Amino acid sequence: MTDTVNADPAELAKFSELAHRWWDVESEFRPLHEINPLRLEWIDGIAPIAGRKVLDVGCGGGILADSMARKGAEVLGIDLADKALKVAQLHALEASTRGVKYRAVSAEALAAEQPGNFDVVTCMEMLEHVPQPASVVKACADLVKPGGWVFFSTIHRNLKSFLFAIVGAEYLLGLLPRGTHEYQKLIRPSELAAYCRAAGLDLRQTRGMEHNPITRRYWLSGDTSVNYMIATQKPGQVQ
């Protein structure tokens, strides 16, 4: 694979090393498994995905992509981490998940190939791992149909997020491997909103995600100071 546009080789290597643990619910990816039902319900509540053509950008081992396919969507998951994609493909075979395919390609390359081809595009927990997040946002906007929806999730850049998402989650509680996130790559909601507007996407909803490490409970709220999600829509008539 030569398509490495807008990707950090160190980030790809980081997730490739952990690829075999994607579907271990007690592994480093446990938080992704625990927040996945919340993310899926939020997405499906805004843009019902059953029977829709959905793209999951930065799909990793396929946790969200697989669950969206089980909701009845026709899903394509894309990533540049080959090992993670192979794990996703193997899990789909083992779990007999229909309606999901995976491909090693960047969002920018796919946007040039298949513009306006998807009803819904998701890009979750990925923007903070690429050199140029605005480029990914623009590609997502190009990939969705007029009237379609694009969903993003990422982490705020401020003192609280540094203490909670990096020091707390990675170094004190061990919820994530150390070095998973780099503070300077985190993205403020105002920055992500600006990327979306520049890409021609209208902001429709913003939600925060909170966590109680003692009870291991996650919930959505209006607090976007650490983890947050944004729902955007491309202007035009829904097809």
From TrEMBL:
InterPro entries: SAM-dependent_MTases_sf, UbiG_MeTrfase
Single GO MF annotation: 2-polyprenyl-6-hydroxyphenol methylase activity
Binding-site positions, S-adenosyl-L-methionine: 39, 58, 79, 124
Enzyme Commission numbers on file: 2.1.1.222, 2.1.1.64
Pfam families tied to this protein: Methyltransf_23
Enzyme class: transferase
Sorted UniProt keywords: Methyltransferase, S-adenosyl-L-methionine, Transferase, Ubiquinone biosynthesis
Listed transmembrane segments: none
Family to which this protein belongs: Belongs to the methyltransferase superfamily. UbiG/COQ3 family.
Cited NCBIfam families: UbiG
PANTHER family given in the database record: METHYLTRANSFERASE, UBIQUINONE BIOSYNTHESIS O-METHYLTRANSFERASE, MITOCHONDRIAL
HAMAP family (UniProt xref): UbiG (MF_00472)
Cited function: O-methyltransferase that catalyzes the 2 O-methylation steps in the ubiquinone biosynthetic pathway.
Entry protein name: Ubiquinone biosynthesis O-methyltransferase
Organism expressing this protein natively: Variovorax ureilyticus
Gene: ubiG
